[in-house]
Amino acid sequence: MRVIFQGRRKTGRLDLEALEMAVRSAMHRAGAAALTELLEFPAPTHAQRTVACPCGQQAPYRELRSKPVLTAVGPVQVSRPYYLCLYCHTGQFPVDVELDIERTEFSPGVRRLQALVGQQAPFDHGRQQLKVLAGLEVTTQSVERTAEATGEDIAQREQQQIHRAVQLDLPIPVGQPVPILYVPMDGTGVPVVKKETLGRPGKTDGPPAHTREVKLIG
Fold first, then answer.
1. Is 200 found in the same domain as 140?
2. Which end of the chain is less enclosed by CB atoms within 10 A, N or C?
3. Do 151 and 78 fall into the same domain?
4. In this structure, is residue 112 part of a structural domain?
5. Residue 10, Cα to own-chain centre: how many angstroms?
6. What is the structure's pLDDT at 187?
7. Residue 1: is its pLDDT beyond 70?
8. Three-state DSSP state, 186
9. Which domain holds residue 212?
């Protein structure tokens, strides 16, 4: 900021783009400092000194450990409790699960941004977009991995929804069976592109067809 205003005093002009980028960077640094302070989790109390382990045992608290995380306002440090099972030697960071940063160094907000730019353009172009639009430094590989992982997660959730729809508990019909079931059906014309009506005559002699018939069942 000092350099920008010194340049203004010398030239009498103000570089607005440089000024707004400098202000954004300053706000990001302030936000990252605030986040780092908020993400300093204390050691657990006596009642929370153990957590359940997947092996069926209890994993005791060992120590506070810190890891870097890139957020939408820049890099921060997350300090959280670490638990280690004495039987299967599996370590756990419950806070990572709570914050959705387990096995990743990118916050949910940054992962969303990477997935967004990764699906709309080549991955390296997406990396450049993040730097220009959000002031975030990431690698091309991280944009690629995040975009692909997000796509796989969306596909998995869609399959789960389809599976739940297929497995609906339908009511058991009661009463006498219907000997004859009448189903009304009608046809209507739906506008289509020209290639769908090639060689098909219209309703009147001369002009080609502009629609295709669709059957509707009531």
1. no
2. C
3. yes
4. yes
5. 47
6. 86
7. no
8. strand
9. 185-217
- For residue 8 the two structure tokens come to 């203004």
Distance between CA 66 and CA 50 in Å, rounded?
19
Mean pLDDT of 172-178: 78
pLDDT in tens, 98-125: 999 999 999 999 999 999 888 877 899 9
At residue 61, φ and ψ (nearest 5 deg) are -70, 140
Same domain, 77 and 156: yes
- What's the whole-model pTM score? 0.65
Contacts of 56 (CB under 8 A, 6+ apart): none
Instruction: Decide if 83 contacts 119 (C-beta within 8 A).
Output: no
Q: At what angle do helices 123-134 and 108-120 cross, to 10 degrees?
A: 130
Q: How many residues does the chain have?
A: 218
44 and 151 inside one domain: yes
Give the amino acid at 190.
Answer: V
